[in-house]
């Protein structure tokens, strides 16, 4: 049994790998223009570049959940995270777009356990009543990785190149691996859970998908985080540069500010959380506000609206911690780890899908007389509304005491 101090030390050490995964998933905002110039990329190809990380990340979540159940948090992240280092170095020296995308896939696989190990560790070693608060703190601390892809990385990319940016992130990833190796040591009973075979674990994952409340949770989960990361990590930098004439460093300053603001959201919403059906109604309300802000940034061509709107999106994105708390309370304790894995899988496959779809929308926009950024942001707002409708009208988790919101 870990003491509170030991648990906090270890979860913060795990946050270092999560912070690097946050940095890797948002590099597109500051590298986009140089990558487009070097590899002659269309907006659709840029979406493929950014989405490949998230597709690999999301697709591996089930396997990471099984790995954590069989081998523990520490061994899973130490075994897999070196792939992120290799992928960053491959990206830095890639000579073609295909190799660049392959590097992103390796990074996505390497980072796949980074957040999941944090949520499982919290569920195992912190009281249930503290889950939302501690998860919010982890999201905030892990969000420090996005600070690196604001002004610091923008300055490095502008003064050197995007390749230097990947090398810097690879070196930081080595440091994160060493921190986890030195500081994270689970109790034997948590690290050696081998009571189920792989086949049994897969059957339990299948049983989760058969539960009636799972679909609504996953559909909304697939679009909320995806909208923020697609804005912050892909479209906002080019939007500020092309729509308003910002320099790369100026757009990096805005991205840095939004990243700082976004760090406050999870902790704030974690403190405001409470059990019961009211949580699900608050999730719906915040998601609707989220969609309105995305539409405003997309269709109001004002620098102030775009900057302030993006900052508010960064803050409101913290309500995603309420979704994690909803997942935690919607399934029995023995399914907590795999429920987190399935939800995280939906989140990051959703990022990959949203970035691919918005890339297509931006590429087709001019043929229909639309600005590419308006098409991309408008589609993001629409997808969030679809997610809200699914969450609100599909059956809710009866075991958690919540009724479907349509009733």
Helix and strand topology:
Blueprint: H1 4-25, H2 28-39, H3 43-59, H4 61-71, H5 73-80, H6 82-92, H7 97-111, H8 113-125, H9 131-142, H10 144-148, H11 151-159, H12 162-183, H13 188-191, H14 198-210, H15 214-244, H16 248-272, H17 277-299, H18 303-316, H19 320-330, H20 336-365, H21 372-393
Helix pairs in contact: 1-8, 1-9, 1-12, 2-3, 2-15, 3-7, 3-20, 4-5, 4-8, 4-20, 5-8, 6-7, 6-12, 8-9, 8-20, 9-16, 9-19, 11-12, 11-16, 15-16, 15-18, 15-20, 15-21, 16-18, 17-18, 17-21, 20-21
Offer a few descriptive terms.
21 helices; globular
Task: Report what the structure shows.
This protein is mostly helical. It has 21 helices and no strands. Helix 9 (131-142) runs antiparallel to helix 16. Helices cover 81% and strands 0% of the residues. It has helices at 4-25, 28-39, 43-59, 61-71, 73-80, 82-92, 97-111, 113-125, 131-142, 144-148, 151-159, 162-183, 188-191, 198-210, 214-244, 248-272, 277-299, 303-316, 320-330, 336-365, 372-393.
